[in-house]
């Protein structure tokens, strides 16, 4: 067991030699020890496809869900596997029986695919979208206040109820922790169902779903938990399982007029014919995490390096880290303001320029975005990064900005 993390851990992963892996948050990655485990499951699937798909893989799926349920503290029969967070969010939003005029509360920091899923509901089912704008850095108390005000304002109109609130556990851009526990309480106290997009949560922040008691919670295991892609879980407590059906309906489908009618939930959510190997590697991912020191040690290092790395880059750029007075925003992702630059490029062009330059010339990935009328870059701590990776990322930012300025 070791907690002496940093660059030496690169050998446990498959990165190209000079790649600067400072953007774990987008796609995640998994340790090499999991590769033969996954391959073995895939081989088994071919040795006797019927036995595997009809019986054996199902048992291993169950045991992996059981292990995950211990990590996130919930009943394993309230968890199902889905391929990714987008699918999980779609499962809930596209099967929940919204009625014309129902309102859905959300924030402009919502992930792009989730935002479009909400647009789909508006276009097809005439739900109304209530959007709260978040200009960071914000105190948790300010987010809570904005949320309470928006709910009061909408309910005072008397023209339809907010049925559901969709919010992140940690948003993508900005890569910040959202006060999801407090917002969950606020919305539920107002009779609103909570759908938490925890795409970035598991493996980055500790979760106790029984205590949190969200109405729906989705989290990607292929981001911060080191499972192969795509592997995510959807949590739906039994009181809410009856209304939820997978986006791709299977033979077990049953209509339920009552949200608490959960008898077909597990069967409806048995995966169709796909490669379930990523789901089956949870055990191996958690074994690896235990072997290197466990959840607490991993999260401590990834958080500390993000905080230190963010400060280093802010100093290099002559700017500031996006943080509030109680320092709740930075978990393993840190956001640093970019220095001012002059350009005739549009915002999408600037983003595309950074994307291409950082990937193809700087051999890294710099996720930049605008919030509160400023440009920011999101950088990620991980067990395999050191401060000099942040230094390199900061230098790449400066070089790309210089190029933009000179064009
Ligand atoms: C907050 C958030 N939600 C949803 C997603 C979508 O995840 P996936 O591509 O695994 O569906 C992401 C991906 O980065 C995300 O950051």
UniProtKB/TrEMBL annotation:
<dbReference type="Pfam" id="PF00266">
    <property type="entry name" value="Aminotran_5"/>
</dbReference>
<dbReference type="InterPro" id="IPR000192">
    <property type="entry name" value="Aminotrans_V_dom"/>
</dbReference>
<dbReference type="InterPro" id="IPR015421">
    <property type="entry name" value="PyrdxlP-dep_Trfase_major"/>
</dbReference>
<protein>
    <recommendedName>
        <fullName>Aminotransferase class V domain-containing protein</fullName>
    </recommendedName>
</protein>
<keyword id="KW-0663">Pyridoxal phosphate</keyword>
<dbReference type="InterPro" id="IPR015424">
    <property type="entry name" value="PyrdxlP-dep_Trfase"/>
</dbReference>
<feature type="domain" description="Aminotransferase class V">
    <location>
        <begin position="57"/>
        <end position="343"/>
    </location>
</feature>
């Amino acid at each position: 067991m070791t907690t002496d993390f940093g660059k030496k851990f690169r050998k446990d992963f498959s990165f190209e030699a000079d790649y600067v892996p400072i953007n774990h948050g987008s796609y995640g990655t998994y340790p090499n020890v999991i590769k033969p485990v996954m391959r073995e499951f895939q081989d088994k699937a071919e040795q006797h496809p019927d036995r595997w798909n009809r019986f054996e893989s199902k048992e291993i799926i169950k045991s992996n869900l059981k292990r995950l349920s211990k990590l996130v503290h919930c009943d394993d029969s309230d968890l199902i596997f889905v391929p990714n967070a987008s699918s999980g969010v779609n499962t809930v939003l596209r099967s929940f029986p919204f009625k014309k005029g129902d309102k859905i509360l959300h924030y402009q920091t919502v992930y792009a695919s989730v935002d479009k899923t909400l647009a789909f509901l508006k276009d097809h089912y005439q739900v109304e979208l209530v959007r709260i704008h978040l200009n960071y850095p914000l105190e948790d108390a300010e987010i809570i206040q904005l949320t309470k005000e928006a709910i009061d304002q909408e309910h005072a109109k008397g023209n339809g109820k907010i049925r559901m609130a969709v919010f992140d556990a940690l948003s993508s851009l900005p890569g910040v922790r959202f006060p999801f526990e407090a917002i969950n309480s606020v919305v539920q106290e107002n009779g609103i169902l909570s759908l938490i997009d925890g795409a970035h949560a598991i493996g980055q922040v500790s979760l106790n779903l029984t205590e949190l008691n969200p109405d729906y919670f989705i989290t990607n295991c292929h981001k911060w938990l080191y499972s192969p892609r795509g592997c995510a879980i959807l949590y739906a407590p039994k009181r809410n399982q009856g209304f939820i059906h997978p986006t791709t309906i299977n033979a077990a489908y049953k209509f339920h007029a009552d949200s608490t009618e959960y008898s077909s939930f597990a069967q409806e959510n048995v995966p169709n014919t796909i490669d379930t190997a990523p789901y089956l590697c949870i055990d191996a991912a958690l074994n690896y995490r235990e072997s290197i020191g466990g959840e607490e040690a991993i999260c401590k290092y990834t958080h500390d390096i993000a905080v230190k790395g963010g400060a280093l880059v802010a100093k290099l750029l002559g700017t500031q880290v996006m943080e509030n007075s109680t320092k709740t925003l930075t978990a393993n992702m840190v956001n640093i303001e970019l220095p001012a630059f002059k350009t005739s490029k549009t915002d999408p062009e600037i983003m595309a320029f950074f994307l291409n330059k950082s990937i193809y010339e700087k051999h890294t990935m710099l996720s930049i975005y605008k919030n509160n009328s400023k440009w920011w870059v999101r950088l990620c701590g991980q067990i395999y990064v050191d401060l000099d990776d942040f230094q390199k990322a900061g230098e790449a930012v400066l070089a790309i900005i210089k190029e933009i300025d000179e064009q």
